[in-house]
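Predict structure. Chain length: 488.
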Amino acid sequence: MKNLEKVNYKGFIWPLVVGIVLWLIIPWRPRGLSLQAWEMFAIFVATIVGCITKPLPIGGTTLLGMVVTVLVGLAPVKDVVNSKGVVIQTGILSSFGNSAAWLIAMAFIMAHGISKTGLGNRVAYLMIKKFGKRSIGIGYAVTGLELIMGALIPSNSARTGGVTWPVVESISKSYKSNPHDPSRKKIGAYLDFTAFHANILSTALFITGAAPNLVAQQMAAQKGYQMSWISWFWAGLVPVIVATLIIPIVIYKMYPPEITKTPNAKNWADGKLKEMGPMSEPEKIVAIVFSLAILLWVLSGFFKIPQLNSAFVAFLAVTLLLITGVLSMEDALHETGAWNILIWLSILILMAGKLISYGFIDWFAKFIQSEVHGISWGLVLVVLVLLMFYTHYFFASGTAHMTALYLPFLTVATAMGAPLGLSAMLLAFTGVINASTTHYANGPASILATTGYVKQKEWWKMNFILGILYMLIFSIVGSLWMKIIGVW
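Prediction complete.
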């Protein structure tokens, strides 16, 4: 007899406690807030807490939140239309047509082609071969690898776990630098920590770099600000370049490897490339398809061609990989991360939309606005950025954090007179760099902080310093750059 699947029943405790408490105080809800708005808020907060405590994987947790939303009458199953055929209430089924969720789902399937063909590893070895004469050179090579992979692989965890970490581990062990051992500081600890921050930079450069970016895109659109692939890339380009130049050096000075010269790295990479042999036909096809997808994403941002919608481009790329035989339909169906994110991202965006339609977000913005009346929008925006960053100590999911706070903070900022474009992008970038807080901040942190190369105390101490550096770079350099290019 097959055993039951494991369920973390203890993880239900806090979501239930939070949800029930919020529900019980409905009669004493703040003045000016409708019954439906508070009920939706209670379910939304309980769902976000569930995404943190994880009684079920995030897909199952959000499905439970969606079911409760329907059961209490806050959302119908299908769209409700009036006599003129106009949708007056969005149903839950419509949420699964969300373009951002489909974009990242298709991008996950595209990324499968990178790993299946070995193209990702080839790029990694070429980078090490080029820059691997010194430890700091390998650090920059790992950073460059992440920036390249950021355009190709839409999951920050997939980039780290599938490409970057295996390369870092192989290089470290080739120098007898082992985890859970004093030898970890030979080079492994430095490369491990550098790889994590390289992932932050790659996520900041591309809107498809991680799921929270797409959450910000959808929520900014609800306030009337459109983020395209090219507009995000253009806004993040200069602060990411500055951070890319500075961060590896700061880590090198703050956390120096014992081995500073690495003459064997080039030979190691050469050996790996010889094992792989010449570039295969599937690799060439994947490279062409990904290049085409990026080109079309760029063109869609410049020329606003309806047919080149970002999600459609991802569908087109997957179709080309299927037609050419690089991927099979079985590959697509077995890419569980794609279908998982399609479920939970669609549901979280639906729930956030309900908070807007029931008036909770407007009420919250007016409440905060009244509390900070008379304060300049610049100071308000600084406070919101600091809150967006440091509240991440209480979150184990970038997506949950972005979903919970991005839209309310954006609403407050614009209500106080802050430029929409600057507020939208600065808060979105903060939702990326706040991963430089804890060892549980996001997927890559969970992977690289548990390898045995970097101790938890070291992780928190160094990240606290680097977090301040990130905020200075993105807030000052980023804001000036966005002013120059006309974002605000």
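Summary: The mean pLDDT is 85.
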